[in-house]
Specification:
This protein is α+β, with helices and mostly antiparallel strands. It has one domain (2-57). Helix content is 18%, strand content 35%. It contains one helix and two strands, in the order E-E-H. The protein has one helix at residues 47-57, and strands at residues 2-12, 16-25. It has a two-stranded antiparallel sheet. It is elongated and about 55 Å long. The two termini are 21 Å apart.
Length: 60
Amino acid sequence: MVRECAVYGVPDETWGQVVTAAVVYKWPRVVHVVPAIPKNAMGKVNKKQLTAVFDTEFKV
């Protein structure tokens, strides 16, 4: 996740200038490593099912 970012040019001998990005990361308070993310028939994340899994299995 990214809190904010900026893109700017930096001098380059070959191209004259190359695109460079400065990124401030936004770290989550908790990270769960899981074998799979539940998805619906359209391939989108099923947030309701995901929340239910974490509410029952991973009490914070």
